[in-house]
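Worked Example 4.2. Consider the chain below.
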Amino acid sequence: MANDKKAKAVIWVASYPKSGNTWVQAVVRRAGKRHGFPQSDVDVYKLIADNREPDVVGGIRPAVSKMATTVLKTHARHTSDQEIHRKLRLKTAGFVHVRRNPLDVLLSYINFTRVQYEKRKDSKDYQDNLFLDLLGFGKAVPYEEWVNVKLEDIPRANLDHALKRYTELETAIPGVSMAGGSWMEHCMSWLEAGKTLPSVYFRYEDLLKGPEYFRSLKELFTFSDQEIFDAVHSINEGHRKLQFKKIFFNKMTSYYYQEFFSAGVINEFLTRFEDDLRRLGYGDLPEYA
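Applying the procedure from the previous section yields the following structure tokens:
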């Protein structure tokens, strides 16, 4: 159970932005309820901004950590030469890494900007990165218009422009800095980290198939199968209630990039990153539906 000790170690729930770690950390929190897991968000960025101490939780396998340990989600790359979010001074005991195929990630990011833009509508840099650089528009779109624009409303030429830029920038998205690099750099860093740290890897697309695909959480936590399955069902039901809202329509779906990008630019991307995608478990991405 949680206690008043100060956390000394952390198990990260890590992913590149828009890859599913909000979903996975919610399942982890729910499954760990009787072990003292907080039933509110465990976002490291909010924790730091609020100057809060992380909650110490139970339910950690002794082989993973015997220290006072917390669980936090992050978008940071793993770095072997320094602590992640060093301000917290937490030793990395292990991690859960969530991957989502990079083409859906790009579309999910573009879709999410309708929410994100509200806080950045006075930032010329944000507008230039999104509308001019990434999407190739001639000028920025005002927030009041963009908040109502669905992916289906964006011209195919501009979405293709975004994928071409994503390819040119080696899977980096203009203006996205919290991950400390591109999708590829982020995922490769955690793949390397798993050689020396207790770890669980998830593909977003696999998790959509059913709660049994979450079972490997037991490699890090003492959760029972029933706790995991009940948590997945509970969290998924909440996601489904949001699924039909215009901003969140693409949650709980996969490989929808085929509906929005042209076959040629998809093929260019897949050819350019063929070897790395195979290493990350995405060597079989379809070119076109």
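The chain is about 40% helix and 10% strand. Confidence is low (pLDDT under 50) at residues 243-250. Compare this with Example 4.1 before moving on.
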